[in-house]
Structure formats: C-alpha cells, structure tokens
C-alpha cells in the first residue's frame, strides 16, 4: 500500500508568521503520526522561511515513522544537516536559491557526475536516496544510472491537467513509473496532490511506494480538521474501484 508522508512545511510557515510557537510544529508532527501518517516530510531551504534547521534536529529523535528530508544538495549546509540527522530518506531537489517552491526535476543526464557523487555520500551513511524528476523516461533511465534508490515524480503537471483530462494528465506518469519499475527503482510522487486527484493517480500506478503531501493537506485541515483530513487522504490511497 502506498505510504502517506505528511509535509509539514506549511505548519512551520504559519508558525513563523508570528515569530512564536503557535502552531507547535513538533506537536503537529507527532499528532500527524498518531492520526495515521506513515511518515513526515520537511523541505528546509536556506532562508528558513518555513522549516528551520533547528526544527529538523528537534524532530528526528521524536518521530516514530519514516522521516524524509527534501532539499537542495548543492548547499553544503543541507548535506551536513542530512548527515547529522540521518533520516530514513533524503530527496534531492534541484531548487535554485530564492525559488518560491520546487518547479522542476533533475536533468539526470546533464548532472550525472554530480548526482553520482552526491548520492554515494548519503548511501554510504545508510540513508535511502530519492531524486526528484519530471515524468520523462529518459530522466528515469538517467536516475537509475546515477545509483539512486528511488525517484520522486514531480506531479505539478498532473495536478494542473487532471481536471480537464485525467487520462492525458496521467499518461506520462504511467510511462515514467513503468520505466522506474522495469529498472528496479522505488517510486515516490509529490507536488500539488490533493483530495481530488490523489485516488486516480494511486489507482493508475498501484506500485507507488509513497506520496508526500503538504500544501493541499494543510489547507484542507483548516476546514476538515487535521485528524479527519489525514484519514481522508489515506482513504484515497486505499480505495480501489473499476475506473
Ligand atoms: C519537492 C517538492 O515537491 C515540493 O513540493 C516541496 O517539498 C513542497 O514544499 P513547499 O510547499 O514548502 O515548497
Ligand atoms: N515532495 C512533495 C511534497 O513534499 C509536498 O508537496 P505539496 O503537497 O506541498 O505540493
């Protein structure tokens, strides 16, 4: 069954807006686990506008589910943070400095040497590595060649096109996911997944290992409550019907 990793960046964004500790990020992470999350994802950025490096150090010993740290490994501070906190998984994302949010995957061919070297650092420390890629079979082949354990498919394009034409929206993702399976890569997905588009994605690619979801899930929680929302997302991943 596909795991749900709850991205708590937006909880930190809300907390930081007033400078205090409300909402309490640690409590919300632990509550997310109690409410059924299979993991917690954070994506620290150098300006610490949401998750702070200090949060990551505090979270690690307290979490009981899978901890996934996403970020830009071109920053030495990110590499140090990951090696010092030793999460279950690190997801390498080719962010550029000052980027609003992640908006593209790795070019795994152009950056082959860099990725090989960086992935080997994390793997030597016993940390599973996933790399963020666009749904392009060539990029998936490139990912296998650099030695990553998993890929994370960047799903913003799927989410954007889903309301108009679900079949067309999912097609490149199924192709990329099949390539990943053929090459023996684990498979994650994330970005803009929500209660409307998650079940279809999950049913079309049932071998998906994990989704990480933050923005929509935290927005839904404002209306539906945090516990209920996590359960609703889990249900989308569990539901199987003849489409
Ligand atoms: C890697 C990725 O897909 C992003 O979705 C990111 O982790 C989300 O975090 P932000 O919403 O803070 O950009
Ligand atoms: N890796 C994607 C992620 O962690 C959350 O993305 P989003 O749901 O906030 O768009």
TrEMBL record:
Catalytic activity: 3-amino-2-oxopropyl phosphate + 1-deoxy-D-xylulose 5-phosphate = pyridoxine 5'-phosphate + phosphate + 2 H2O + H(+)
Site (Transition state stabilizer): 152
Top-level taxonomic group: Bacteria
Active-site feature positions: 43, 70, 191
Gene3D superfamilies: Aldolase class I
InterPro entries: Aldolase_TIM, PyrdxlP_synth_PdxJ, Pyridoxine-5'_phos_synth
Chain sites annotated for binding 3-amino-2-oxopropyl phosphate: 7, 18, 192, 214-215
GO molecular function list: pyridoxine 5'-phosphate synthase activity
EC number assigned by the record: 2.6.99.2
Binding site for 1-deoxy-D-xylulose 5-phosphate: 45, 50, 101
Enzyme class, spelled out: transferase
UniProt xrefs under CDD domains: PNPsynthase
Reported function: Catalyzes the complicated ring closure reaction between the two acyclic compounds 1-deoxy-D-xylulose-5-phosphate (DXP) and 3-amino-2-oxopropyl phosphate (1-amino-acetone-3-phosphate or AAP) to form pyridoxine 5'-phosphate (PNP) and inorganic phosphate.
Sequence similarity: Belongs to the PNP synthase family.
Subunit: Homooctamer; tetramer of dimers.
Protein name as it appears in the record: Pyridoxine 5'-phosphate synthase
Originating species: Niabella pedocola
């Amino acid at each position: 069954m596909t795991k749900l990793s709850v991205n708590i960046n937006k909880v930190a964004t809300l907390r930081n807006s007033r400078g205090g500790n409300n909402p309490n990020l640690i409590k919300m992470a632990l509550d997310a686990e109690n409410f059924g999350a299979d993991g917690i994802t954070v994506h620290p950025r150098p300006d610490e506008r949401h998750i702070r490096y200090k949060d990551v150090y505090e979270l690690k010993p307290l979490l009981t589910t899978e901890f996934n740290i996403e970020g830009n490994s071109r920053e030495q501070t990110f590499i140090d943070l990951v090696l010092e906190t030793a999460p279950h998984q690190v997801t390498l994302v080719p962010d550029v400095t000052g980027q609003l949010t992640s908006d593209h995957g790795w070019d795994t061919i152009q950056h082959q040497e860099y990725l090989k070297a960086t992935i080997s650092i994390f793997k030597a420390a016993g940390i599973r590595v996933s790399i963020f890629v666009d749904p392009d079979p060539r990029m998936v082949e490139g990912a296998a060649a650099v030695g990553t354990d998993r890929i994370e498919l960047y799903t913003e394009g799927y989410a954007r096109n889903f309301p108009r034409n679900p079949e067309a929206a999912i097609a490149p993702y199924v192709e990329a996911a099949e390539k990943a399976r053929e090459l023996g890569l684990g498979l994650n997905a994330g970005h803009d997944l929500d209660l409307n588009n998650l079940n279809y994605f999950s049913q079309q690619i049932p071998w998906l290992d994990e989704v990480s979801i933050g923005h929509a899930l935290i927005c839904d929680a404002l209306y539906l409550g945090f516990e209920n929302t996590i359960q609703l997302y889990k249900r989308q991943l569990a539901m199987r019907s003849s489409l």
